Amino acid sequence: QASENAASPHQQQAAASATAVHDDSGMLSALAASVSVCRRRRQPLSFVLLEIDEFDDHVFHSGGAFAGTVDGELRARLEQHLEPGQQVLVTGDAQLGLLLTGDDRLEAVATSRRILDEARSGNLVADDGHGISMSMSIGIASVGLPAKNCRAADLHEAALRCLFAVQSCGGDNVKSIDVY
Fold first, then answer.
1. pTM to 2 decimal places
2. Which of 28, 36, 37, 68 is placed for a possible disulfide with 127 were both Cys, Cβ 3.0 to 4.6 Å?
3. How confident is the prediction along the chain (180 residues), in pLDDT tens digits per residue?
4. Which residues are CB-neighbours of 64 under 8 A, at least 6 positions away?
């Protein structure tokens, strides 16, 4: 009976990768590393949180095809907007983060607006071959030059506040803030 209840190695690996992908401590440690790099290089840093509006409705209507698109194609599309040293983080089922090292607030807003326009265009193709048009809420926290007391958690919280502000106004927009 114990062997019947034990998870297969494939299930264990899937569970481990799912927790790693959605692990806030992993995201915060990546953000902290970027803060440190930007402080050493004396360059700005922007942290962008993108959340797909009405994600559950998309999944309900498109099934796993939509979730696969978010996981694969959307992430690949986001990486096309990044420069070397910048990265995409998966922070939740419908939420992605961008670490934009070297980008100030205005550059991060411009990048985010391009991403938002692309998401609206319907150019994303689901696993089932259908085009997907979606809206996103985007929150950005930027720091011109990270000070020694600049905490990753503060940037994350500021980006979350901006994201929630966009969502409270109906979504499909970008809001940003400078953190000092």
1. 0.79
2. 68
3. 444 444 433 333 333 333 233 457 788 999 999 999 999 999 999 999 999 888 777 677 766 666 666 667 778 888 888 999 899 998 776 788 999 999 999 999 999 999 999 888 876 666 666 666 788 999 999 999 999 999 999 999 999 999 999 999 999 999 999 998
4. 127
Tell me the sheet residues that pair with 140: 48, 176
Based on DSSP, count helices (H) and strands (E) in the chain, helices before strands.
8, 7
Report the alpha-carbon distance of residue 10 to residue 83 in Å, rounded: 34
Structural tokens at position 54: 């009405």
Separation CA 76–CA 4 (nearest Å): 38
Tokens of 46: 């922007």
Is the Cα dihedral 153, 159, 165, 166 positive or negative?
negative
